Amino acid sequence: MGIECKAYAENAMLKRILVDFHLLKTLYPHLTCCLFQLESQLGGDYADLPETPFGSRATHSIMSYFDDVDLHIVTFLKGERKVDKRSQCALK
Predict the structure, then answer these.
(1) Is 71 helix (H, G, I), strand (E, B) or coil?
(2) Residue 75: per-residue pLDDT
(3) How far apart are CA 68 and CA 18, in angstroms?
(4) What number of other Cβ atoms are within 10 A of residue 45's Cβ?
(5) Residue 87 pLDDT more than 60?
(6) Among 28, 56, 60, 75, who pairs with 43 as Cys (CB 3.0-4.6 Å)?
(7) Which of 66, 63, 64, 50 minimizes the C-alpha distance to 9?
(8) Using CB atoms within 10 A of its CB, is residue 71 exposed (0-12), middle (13-18) or buried (19+)?
(9) Is the pLDDT of residue 81 over 80?
């Protein structure tokens, strides 16, 4: 299992995470890839914590380039990360 842990993730970080997992999967093709994030900045419903998140169009566009990486994203705090506040989560 490959695990990436972040305080928050946004699409620029997601690109790097996917490249890292893509490279790891060349050596370990059956690797399960997980991103654990405290807060989300990926857009879509990753911050709403539904049973099955669908994410944003931008996130899905990025992930579609890495179809060999089935990335499981787990978000612990509901709401989008407030970028104007330090370590705060915008709760709905």
Answers:
(1) strand
(2) 86
(3) 10
(4) 15
(5) no
(6) 56
(7) 63
(8) middle
(9) no
Q: Exposure pattern of 7-27 as b/e (b: 16+ CB <10 Å)? A: ebbbeebbeebbeebeeebee
Q: pLDDT at position 52, please?
A: 65
For the stretch 36-53, pLDDT in tens is 998 888 876 666 666 766
**29 close to 65: Cβ distance less than 8 angstroms:** no
Single out the residue of 53, 34, 52, 32 nearest to residue 44, CA to CA: 53
**Residue entry with tokens 């990436």:** 4
Higher-pLDDT residue of 18, 81: 18
By three-state DSSP, how is residue 21 classified?
Answer: helix
